[in-house]
Design a protein that fits this description.
This protein has about 500 residues and is α+β, with helices and mostly antiparallel strands. It is about 55% helix and about 10% strand.
Amino acid sequence: MPISKPLPRTLEDWLKQLDKHLLPVPAESHLTVCRALSDSRRSLREIAALMQASPALALSVLREANRQAGSFSTPAESLESAIGRLGLQRTLELVKRQPARPLDEIPLALRQIQLISQHAAQQASGLFSARLARLWQEIHWGSLLFLAPIWSLLAAHPELFKEWEQRVLARAEPAARVEQDLLGVPLLALCLALAERWRLPDWVVQGYRLLVEDRRQLVKALHIARDNQHPLRQQQMLDADTPLRRWLTQPANSILLANGLALSAHHAWSSPHSLRWQHLTGLYLQLPLNDVQQQVHQHAVQSARQQASAELWHPAQALLWPWDTRRLQSQTNPPPATASASASADNGWRQHCAQLLAQPSAFHNLGQLTTRTTQALQACGMSRVLLLLADRSHSRLHAQQQAGLDPSAGTLVIDPLHSQVLRRLLKTPAQLRLTPANIAQFSALLPGSLKVLFPSEHLLLRSLASNGRVVMIIIADQNGAALSDVSVQAFGKTVQCIQRALDSFAKRER
């Protein structure tokens, strides 16, 4: 995309331009905050909460308070303290000077990067605020404002965001080279300089100094964090490096971790960059990777519920996609000829899942729900699928839907009494993955009729419950081929959608 404005090429020129650039504010938020500041009944906390909905306003107030700190030796770490230093009248005057614009006139790139900052604030609050309760304001405002220097950059030159996405994420060009081409200076160096000039909270400045001036600690911590499956060995390595252990436990690192998680998730949850931040967060919190991912995904969904917009991309949307999917595919290797067919299949999978997740339930009867369930499982890569429904006494399993199997599978009835595996699946929702390593252990515990339909050493069995009682067992494979971890993850995400559909359908019927 051609650059529409001449860009500075030196750090000092960038600072001069961005330091005086005013960020546009949504007109509705601007009016709400002005009214609150004029209302003597409003507390500072209420005003700060309203201002938080417009990150640009929060930045302008905090920046101005710290510029005019006077006798205050340390910068304000929260919006409440910044308003207290300025006073309500000066804060109101400052807010009125900010350019108020209709939402559709604010550059999409600026709104996108602010959404990433709001996602980071949600991650920081969910992951760290409970553990560091006395520092919750520093954690919240530091994580929200960490990317503030980039807000100003994109407010002045919104075209840079699309250019960066295409070159770094889609074409996999080195970020340092792209930054040099576009800006003439390293992006992190520019962010550090702006953070220091604006006297942003100390934790923000510390984070940029670490990334610019001392990456050794970060690299050493990342090296240890990769060994997430051996926490004892990780602890021994930290005990052997006292300075690293002390650095890692600093509360200031929470805002760097939160922004690393949010920014890397913008491309893909399973990218190497994203996994590095997940591993490092696990080391910081002393949690296994699976627990970290579960929490991070939950906080992303909560963030999307609060801030998502139809015009903007939120990484929570990708949690419904197959695990290795990228929103912007790398072009370092030419895409295969079947790329369009793959994209079409992926779109079909997402459409099926969207139907399953609809609230209230989009299904008028169980047959419609199970048909859509089978279609979603096929779209996620399962070529043979069998859905078994349990009767109320769990004494019979009846085939409800099948795909890719002999037509006789549609009339199958199984007595689970003689199968330990089926009894276990009916007892509580669970998943069993058969592989050559465990097939000898479980094969004898499966009914012969299932083994005839699925003559395979690679099989997935999953039971689902409704109202606390198992009602369905899903059996699926890929025509006997080995199941990759990606395929198993895609199956798992599809099953999550099916479970939600069952829950919604049960409520609808009641």
